[in-house]
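Weekly puzzle thread! Below is a chain. First person to post its structure in C-alpha coordinate form gets bragging rights.
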Amino acid sequence: MKNTPPRPKGRSTAANPLGRFETLEVVPEEAPVDRVPTLYLRDNSRSIVARNESPDVPFNASINPYRGCEHGCIYCFARPFHEYLGFSAGLDFETRILVKESAPELLAKELSSTRWKPQVLAMSGATDPYQPIERKLQLTRKCLEVLATFLNPVGVITKNALVGRDIDYLGVLAQHQTVTVLVSITTLDGELARTMEPRTSHPRDRLLTLEKLARAGIPCGVSLAPVIPGLNDHEIPAILEAAADAGATYAHWLMLRLPGAVETLFADWLQECYPDRSAKVLNRIRDIRGGRLNESQFSKRLRGTGVFAKQIRGLFSSACTRYGLATQAPDLSVTAFRRPSGDQLDLF
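Winning reply:
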Protein backbone atom coordinates (compact mmCIF):
# COMPACT_ATOMS: atom_id res chain seq x y z
CA MET A 1 0.00 0.00 0.00
CA LYS A 2 1.25 3.47 -0.87
CA ASN A 3 1.98 6.01 1.82
CA THR A 4 -1.47 7.58 1.71
CA PRO A 5 -2.50 10.13 4.37
CA PRO A 6 -5.22 9.09 6.84
CA ARG A 7 -8.79 9.14 5.54
CA PRO A 8 -10.63 12.38 6.33
CA LYS A 9 -13.70 11.94 8.50
CA GLY A 10 -16.71 10.76 6.52
CA ARG A 11 -14.65 9.83 3.46
CA SER A 12 -13.63 6.41 2.20
CA THR A 13 -10.26 7.51 0.83
CA ALA A 14 -7.69 10.28 1.14
CA ALA A 15 -6.00 9.32 -2.12
CA ASN A 16 -6.39 11.41 -5.24
CA PRO A 17 -4.58 9.47 -7.96
CA LEU A 18 -3.73 11.27 -11.17
CA GLY A 19 -6.49 10.94 -13.73
CA ARG A 20 -5.71 8.87 -16.82
CA PHE A 21 -6.14 11.93 -19.08
CA GLU A 22 -3.94 14.23 -16.99
CA THR A 23 -0.21 14.84 -17.51
CA LEU A 24 0.47 17.27 -14.66
CA GLU A 25 0.07 16.29 -11.01
CA VAL A 26 -0.07 18.90 -8.25
CA VAL A 27 1.00 17.56 -4.86
CA PRO A 28 -0.07 19.80 -1.94
CA GLU A 29 2.59 20.67 0.63
CA GLU A 30 0.23 21.17 3.55
CA ALA A 31 -0.32 18.48 6.15
CA PRO A 32 -3.31 16.10 5.79
CA VAL A 33 -6.58 17.52 7.09
CA ASP A 34 -9.13 15.74 9.26
CA ARG A 35 -12.09 17.00 7.24
CA VAL A 36 -12.49 17.79 3.55
CA PRO A 37 -15.53 19.90 2.63
CA THR A 38 -17.67 19.09 -0.38
CA LEU A 39 -17.54 21.57 -3.24
CA TYR A 40 -20.58 21.86 -5.50
CA LEU A 41 -19.98 23.02 -9.05
CA ARG A 42 -22.49 24.09 -11.68
CA ASP A 43 -22.91 21.65 -14.55
CA ASN A 44 -24.20 23.42 -17.65
CA SER A 45 -25.09 20.30 -19.60
CA ARG A 46 -27.69 20.95 -22.28
CA SER A 47 -29.21 17.48 -22.10
CA ILE A 48 -30.21 15.24 -19.20
CA VAL A 49 -30.83 11.81 -20.77
CA ALA A 50 -27.72 9.63 -21.00
CA ARG A 51 -27.75 6.74 -23.47
CA ASN A 52 -26.41 3.29 -22.65
CA GLU A 53 -24.88 0.98 -25.23
CA SER A 54 -23.65 -1.77 -22.89
CA PRO A 55 -25.39 -5.04 -23.83
CA ASP A 56 -25.40 -6.35 -20.24
CA VAL A 57 -27.12 -3.30 -18.70
CA PRO A 58 -30.93 -3.65 -18.63
CA PHE A 59 -31.82 -0.08 -19.64
CA ASN A 60 -31.13 2.14 -22.63
CA ALA A 61 -31.45 5.56 -21.04
CA SER A 62 -30.86 7.13 -17.64
CA ILE A 63 -31.02 10.49 -15.88
CA ASN A 64 -29.19 11.99 -12.91
CA PRO A 65 -28.96 15.61 -11.73
CA TYR A 66 -25.51 14.97 -10.19
CA ARG A 67 -22.06 13.85 -11.31
CA GLY A 68 -19.73 12.55 -8.64
CA CYS A 69 -21.23 11.18 -5.43
CA GLU A 70 -20.84 12.31 -1.85
CA HIS A 71 -21.85 8.88 -0.59
CA GLY A 72 -18.22 7.98 -1.25
CA CYS A 73 -18.60 4.21 -1.71
CA ILE A 74 -15.04 2.96 -2.05
CA TYR A 75 -16.00 0.29 -4.59
CA CYS A 76 -18.06 2.55 -6.90
CA PHE A 77 -17.48 1.62 -10.56
CA ALA A 78 -18.48 5.19 -11.56
CA ARG A 79 -15.39 6.76 -9.98
CA PRO A 80 -13.34 6.71 -13.24
CA PHE A 81 -16.07 8.78 -14.96
CA HIS A 82 -14.85 11.75 -12.92
CA GLU A 83 -11.55 11.61 -14.79
CA TYR A 84 -13.35 12.75 -17.95
CA LEU A 85 -14.07 16.00 -16.07
CA GLY A 86 -10.44 16.60 -15.13
CA PHE A 87 -10.88 15.30 -11.57
CA SER A 88 -9.50 12.29 -9.73
CA ALA A 89 -11.41 9.07 -9.20
CA GLY A 90 -10.34 9.25 -5.56
CA LEU A 91 -11.24 11.94 -3.06
CA ASP A 92 -12.34 14.32 -5.84
CA PHE A 93 -15.16 11.93 -6.76
CA GLU A 94 -16.58 12.29 -3.24
CA THR A 95 -15.93 16.01 -2.74
CA ARG A 96 -16.31 17.65 -6.16
CA ILE A 97 -19.95 17.23 -7.11
CA LEU A 98 -21.30 18.67 -10.35
CA VAL A 99 -24.92 19.82 -10.12
CA LYS A 100 -27.26 20.02 -13.10
CA GLU A 101 -29.49 22.82 -11.87
CA SER A 102 -31.62 22.73 -15.04
CA ALA A 103 -32.23 18.98 -14.87
CA PRO A 104 -36.05 19.19 -14.39
CA GLU A 105 -36.46 21.71 -17.21
CA LEU A 106 -34.20 19.71 -19.53
CA LEU A 107 -36.18 16.54 -18.75
CA ALA A 108 -39.52 18.25 -19.44
CA LYS A 109 -38.16 19.55 -22.75
CA GLU A 110 -36.92 16.09 -23.72
CA LEU A 111 -40.18 14.33 -22.91
CA SER A 112 -42.33 16.98 -24.59
CA SER A 113 -40.49 16.56 -27.87
CA THR A 114 -42.30 14.50 -30.50
CA ARG A 115 -38.97 12.77 -31.08
CA TRP A 116 -39.15 11.21 -27.60
CA LYS A 117 -40.30 7.61 -27.65
CA PRO A 118 -41.70 6.63 -24.22
CA GLN A 119 -39.31 4.20 -22.53
CA VAL A 120 -38.06 3.26 -19.10
CA LEU A 121 -35.56 5.70 -17.64
CA ALA A 122 -33.12 4.60 -14.95
CA MET A 123 -32.49 7.02 -12.09
CA SER A 124 -29.64 6.40 -12.15
CA GLY A 125 -27.21 3.92 -13.66
CA ALA A 126 -24.15 5.44 -12.02
CA THR A 127 -24.05 7.89 -9.08
CA ASP A 128 -26.86 8.12 -6.54
CA PRO A 129 -29.71 10.57 -7.28
CA TYR A 130 -30.43 10.82 -3.53
CA GLN A 131 -26.99 11.80 -2.26
CA PRO A 132 -26.92 14.30 0.65
CA ILE A 133 -27.21 17.56 -1.37
CA GLU A 134 -30.54 16.35 -2.77
CA ARG A 135 -32.12 17.08 0.60
CA LYS A 136 -31.52 20.79 -0.06
CA LEU A 137 -31.67 21.13 -3.86
CA GLN A 138 -34.53 18.66 -4.52
CA LEU A 139 -33.55 18.21 -8.17
CA THR A 140 -34.33 14.49 -8.16
CA ARG A 141 -37.71 15.27 -6.60
CA LYS A 142 -38.43 17.83 -9.32
CA CYS A 143 -37.44 15.32 -11.99
CA LEU A 144 -39.89 12.84 -10.47
CA GLU A 145 -42.56 15.53 -10.65
CA VAL A 146 -41.87 15.81 -14.38
CA LEU A 147 -42.00 12.04 -14.81
CA ALA A 148 -45.28 11.87 -12.86
CA THR A 149 -46.73 14.60 -15.08
CA PHE A 150 -45.80 12.74 -18.27
CA LEU A 151 -46.30 9.28 -16.72
CA ASN A 152 -43.03 8.14 -18.23
CA PRO A 153 -41.78 4.96 -16.52
CA VAL A 154 -38.72 5.15 -14.25
CA GLY A 155 -36.66 2.71 -12.22
CA VAL A 156 -35.08 4.37 -9.18
CA ILE A 157 -31.92 2.95 -7.57
CA THR A 158 -30.57 4.39 -4.31
CA LYS A 159 -28.72 3.72 -1.05
CA ASN A 160 -30.41 6.66 0.66
CA ALA A 161 -33.55 6.62 2.79
CA LEU A 162 -34.37 10.08 1.41
CA VAL A 163 -36.27 8.39 -1.42
CA GLY A 164 -39.10 7.96 1.10
CA ARG A 165 -39.65 11.72 0.99
CA ASP A 166 -40.98 11.42 -2.56
CA ILE A 167 -43.72 8.87 -1.99
CA ASP A 168 -46.29 11.35 -3.33
CA TYR A 169 -44.84 11.37 -6.86
CA LEU A 170 -43.78 7.72 -6.67
CA GLY A 171 -47.36 6.88 -5.70
CA VAL A 172 -48.77 8.65 -8.76
CA LEU A 173 -46.39 6.70 -10.98
CA ALA A 174 -47.19 3.42 -9.21
CA GLN A 175 -50.89 3.81 -10.03
CA HIS A 176 -50.01 3.49 -13.70
CA GLN A 177 -47.37 0.73 -13.46
CA THR A 178 -44.64 3.24 -14.25
CA VAL A 179 -42.20 2.99 -11.33
CA THR A 180 -40.04 0.59 -9.37
CA VAL A 181 -37.65 1.49 -6.54
CA LEU A 182 -34.55 -0.60 -5.89
CA VAL A 183 -32.95 0.01 -2.49
CA SER A 184 -29.32 -1.05 -2.42
CA ILE A 185 -28.22 -2.89 0.74
CA THR A 186 -24.70 -4.35 0.65
CA THR A 187 -24.43 -5.25 4.33
CA LEU A 188 -26.48 -5.29 7.54
CA ASP A 189 -23.35 -4.43 9.52
CA GLY A 190 -23.53 -0.73 10.34
CA GLU A 191 -19.81 -0.46 11.01
CA LEU A 192 -18.87 -2.02 7.68
CA ALA A 193 -21.36 0.25 5.90
CA ARG A 194 -19.96 3.34 7.62
CA THR A 195 -16.44 2.46 6.52
CA MET A 196 -17.25 1.21 3.02
CA GLU A 197 -20.08 3.63 2.12
CA PRO A 198 -19.49 6.48 4.57
CA ARG A 199 -22.32 8.90 3.71
CA THR A 200 -25.07 6.49 2.78
CA SER A 201 -28.05 5.76 5.01
CA HIS A 202 -27.57 3.16 7.74
CA PRO A 203 -28.75 -0.32 6.59
CA ARG A 204 -31.45 -0.19 9.28
CA ASP A 205 -32.88 2.98 7.72
CA ARG A 206 -32.82 1.47 4.25
CA LEU A 207 -34.93 -1.44 5.50
CA LEU A 208 -37.35 1.00 7.12
CA THR A 209 -37.57 2.81 3.77
CA LEU A 210 -38.48 -0.46 2.05
CA GLU A 211 -41.28 -0.87 4.60
CA LYS A 212 -42.51 2.66 3.94
CA LEU A 213 -42.50 2.19 0.17
CA ALA A 214 -44.22 -1.20 0.36
CA ARG A 215 -46.97 0.16 2.63
CA ALA A 216 -47.59 2.92 0.08
CA GLY A 217 -48.06 0.35 -2.69
CA ILE A 218 -44.88 1.23 -4.54
CA PRO A 219 -43.17 -1.79 -6.15
CA CYS A 220 -39.79 -2.11 -4.47
CA GLY A 221 -36.87 -4.48 -4.34
CA VAL A 222 -33.42 -4.91 -2.87
CA SER A 223 -30.11 -4.72 -4.68
CA LEU A 224 -27.00 -6.51 -3.40
CA ALA A 225 -24.53 -4.50 -5.44
CA PRO A 226 -21.78 -5.16 -5.19
CA VAL A 227 -21.27 -8.59 -3.76
CA ILE A 228 -17.64 -8.69 -2.56
CA PRO A 229 -16.29 -12.24 -2.23
CA GLY A 230 -14.83 -12.84 1.21
CA LEU A 231 -16.28 -9.62 2.66
CA ASN A 232 -20.07 -9.47 2.35
CA ASP A 233 -21.09 -12.54 0.30
CA HIS A 234 -21.91 -14.50 3.46
CA GLU A 235 -24.62 -11.91 4.25
CA ILE A 236 -26.67 -12.64 1.13
CA PRO A 237 -29.33 -14.80 2.87
CA ALA A 238 -29.68 -12.44 5.83
CA ILE A 239 -30.03 -9.35 3.63
CA LEU A 240 -32.64 -11.02 1.43
CA GLU A 241 -34.60 -12.25 4.44
CA ALA A 242 -34.60 -8.79 6.03
CA ALA A 243 -35.60 -7.15 2.75
CA ALA A 244 -38.44 -9.63 2.16
CA ASP A 245 -39.70 -9.05 5.70
CA ALA A 246 -39.66 -5.29 4.98
CA GLY A 247 -41.82 -5.70 1.88
CA ALA A 248 -39.40 -6.12 -1.02
CA THR A 249 -40.84 -8.30 -3.77
CA TYR A 250 -37.77 -8.80 -5.95
CA ALA A 251 -33.99 -8.85 -5.64
CA HIS A 252 -30.99 -8.05 -7.78
CA TRP A 253 -27.25 -8.56 -7.42
CA LEU A 254 -23.99 -7.60 -9.13
CA MET A 255 -20.45 -8.77 -8.56
CA LEU A 256 -17.81 -6.26 -7.50
CA ARG A 257 -16.18 -4.41 -10.40
CA LEU A 258 -12.85 -2.60 -10.05
CA PRO A 259 -12.30 -0.61 -13.26
CA GLY A 260 -9.33 1.73 -13.67
CA ALA A 261 -8.25 3.59 -10.55
CA VAL A 262 -10.89 1.81 -8.42
CA GLU A 263 -8.71 -1.30 -8.34
CA THR A 264 -5.92 0.43 -6.38
CA LEU A 265 -8.29 2.56 -4.30
CA PHE A 266 -10.22 -0.50 -3.16
CA ALA A 267 -7.11 -2.60 -2.46
CA ASP A 268 -5.56 0.20 -0.39
CA TRP A 269 -8.82 0.72 1.55
CA LEU A 270 -9.06 -3.00 2.24
CA GLN A 271 -5.50 -3.14 3.56
CA GLU A 272 -6.07 -0.12 5.78
CA CYS A 273 -9.48 -1.01 7.19
CA TYR A 274 -9.52 -4.83 7.11
CA PRO A 275 -5.88 -5.99 6.98
CA ASP A 276 -6.78 -9.38 8.45
CA ARG A 277 -9.10 -10.10 5.51
CA SER A 278 -7.32 -8.22 2.74
CA ALA A 279 -5.38 -11.12 1.21
CA LYS A 280 -8.40 -13.45 1.34
CA VAL A 281 -10.72 -10.94 -0.32
CA LEU A 282 -8.26 -10.04 -3.08
CA ASN A 283 -7.53 -13.69 -3.78
CA ARG A 284 -11.26 -14.46 -4.00
CA ILE A 285 -11.70 -11.58 -6.43
CA ARG A 286 -8.86 -12.94 -8.56
CA ASP A 287 -10.52 -16.36 -8.49
CA ILE A 288 -13.72 -14.95 -10.02
CA ARG A 289 -11.84 -12.68 -12.45
CA GLY A 290 -9.53 -15.18 -14.13
CA GLY A 291 -6.50 -14.22 -12.04
CA ARG A 292 -7.03 -10.45 -12.29
CA LEU A 293 -8.78 -7.94 -10.05
CA ASN A 294 -11.03 -6.67 -12.81
CA GLU A 295 -12.83 -8.02 -15.85
CA SER A 296 -14.22 -5.70 -18.52
CA GLN A 297 -15.74 -8.26 -20.87
CA PHE A 298 -19.48 -7.68 -21.11
CA SER A 299 -20.47 -11.32 -20.72
CA LYS A 300 -18.40 -11.77 -17.55
CA ARG A 301 -18.00 -8.46 -15.71
CA LEU A 302 -21.30 -8.36 -13.82
CA ARG A 303 -21.33 -11.95 -12.52
CA GLY A 304 -17.80 -13.37 -12.61
CA THR A 305 -16.69 -16.92 -13.41
CA GLY A 306 -15.30 -19.90 -11.56
CA VAL A 307 -16.20 -21.87 -8.45
CA PHE A 308 -16.75 -18.95 -6.06
CA ALA A 309 -18.87 -17.05 -8.57
CA LYS A 310 -21.00 -20.17 -9.04
CA GLN A 311 -21.41 -20.51 -5.27
CA ILE A 312 -22.57 -16.90 -4.98
CA ARG A 313 -25.09 -17.33 -7.79
CA GLY A 314 -26.43 -20.45 -6.12
CA LEU A 315 -26.62 -18.81 -2.69
CA PHE A 316 -28.52 -15.83 -4.10
CA SER A 317 -30.91 -18.01 -6.09
CA SER A 318 -31.73 -20.37 -3.23
CA ALA A 319 -32.23 -17.48 -0.77
CA CYS A 320 -34.61 -15.74 -3.20
CA THR A 321 -36.62 -18.94 -3.48
CA ARG A 322 -36.66 -19.39 0.30
CA TYR A 323 -37.90 -15.86 0.98
CA GLY A 324 -40.29 -15.56 -1.97
CA LEU A 325 -38.37 -12.92 -3.92
CA ALA A 326 -38.52 -12.66 -7.69
CA THR A 327 -35.21 -12.21 -9.48
CA GLN A 328 -36.61 -9.79 -12.04
CA ALA A 329 -38.14 -6.36 -11.50
CA PRO A 330 -41.82 -5.95 -12.43
CA ASP A 331 -42.38 -4.89 -16.02
CA LEU A 332 -43.13 -1.21 -16.45
CA SER A 333 -45.65 0.16 -18.92
CA VAL A 334 -45.42 3.03 -21.40
CA THR A 335 -49.11 2.96 -22.29
CA ALA A 336 -50.05 5.74 -19.86
CA PHE A 337 -47.49 8.20 -21.28
CA ARG A 338 -48.97 11.60 -22.07
CA ARG A 339 -47.77 15.01 -23.13
CA PRO A 340 -49.35 17.73 -21.00
CA SER A 341 -50.59 21.07 -22.32
CA GLY A 342 -48.37 24.09 -22.77
CA ASP A 343 -49.69 25.67 -19.57
CA GLN A 344 -48.59 22.65 -17.55
CA LEU A 345 -45.18 22.66 -19.19
CA ASP A 346 -44.72 26.29 -18.17
CA LEU A 347 -44.48 25.03 -14.57
CA PHE A 348 -41.08 23.53 -15.41
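Puzzle host: Confirmed. Bonus trivia for everyone else. The longest strand covers residues 220-227.
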